[in-house]
């Protein structure tokens, strides 16, 4: 099958040289035309994956920080709400105590004022009664002096003065 003739060996070596040179030229063309774009595409894809991973880590970190901030703000808001509620309760309690105290003071003042008014009215009634009794006594005495009365006339006179007193009030 194979012959080792000088002419055949030269052709065989020549074919091999041609195939080798063609293969090298083809590899060089593949390197220029296809290899660089493929390696560039693979490098770009690798860079994009690395960037996506870094971006995902960064996003996860930011999300965790945001969650912590939100939780801290929520806790602060709860504390503020509790403080406001407690302050409102204390203010309500103070207002309730103040209202009760004011009502007690007002009731005491009204009672005192009513007692003073009652005492004043009583004093006025006593003064009026004394004046009326004095005036009645003077009138009775003047009538008795001016006219001698028997017992029936005296009773009638007293009764008429008493009725007159009831009508004056």
UniProtKB/TrEMBL annotation:
GO CC, one annotated term: plasma membrane
Topology class, membrane: Single-pass membrane protein
Biased composition (Polar residues): 87-98
Keyword Heme: no
Record field: transmembrane: 12-35
Pfam families: ATP-synt_B
Molecular-function GO terms, alphabetical: hydrolase activity; proton-transporting ATP synthase activity, rotational mechanism; proton-transporting ATPase activity, rotational mechanism
Stretches with biased composition (Basic and acidic residues): 113-132
Region named Disordered: 87-132
Family, as annotated: Belongs to the ATPase B chain family.
Purpose: Component of the F(0) channel, it forms part of the peripheral stalk, linking F(1) to F(0).
PANTHER family: ATP SYNTHASE SUBUNIT B, ATP SYNTHASE SUBUNIT B', CHLOROPLASTIC
Name of the protein described by the UniProt record: ATP synthase subunit b
Lineage of the organism: Bacteria, Bacillati, Bacillota, Bacilli, Lactobacillales
């Amino acid at each position: 099958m194979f012959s080792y003739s000088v002419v055949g060996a030269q052709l065989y070596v020549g074919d091999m040289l041609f195939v080798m040179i063609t293969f090298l030229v083809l590899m060089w063309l593949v390197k220029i035309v296809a290899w660089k774009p493929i390696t560039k595409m693979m490098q770009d894809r690798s860079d994009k994956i690395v960037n996506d991973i870094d971006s995902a880590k960064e996003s996860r970190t930011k999300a965790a920080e945001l969650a912590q901030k939100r939780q801290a703000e929520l806790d602060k808001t709860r504390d503020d709400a509790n403080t406001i509620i407690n302050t409102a309760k204390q203010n309500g309690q103070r207002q309730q105590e103040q209202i009760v105290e004011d009502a007690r003071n007002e009731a005491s003042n009204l009672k005192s004022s009513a007692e003073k008014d009652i005492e004043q009215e009583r004093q006025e009634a006593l003064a009026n009664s004394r004046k009326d009794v004095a005036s009645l006594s003077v009138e009775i005495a003047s009538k008795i002096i001016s006219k001698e009365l028997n017992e029936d006339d005296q009773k009638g006179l007293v009764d008429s003065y008493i009725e007159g007193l009831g009508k004056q009030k």
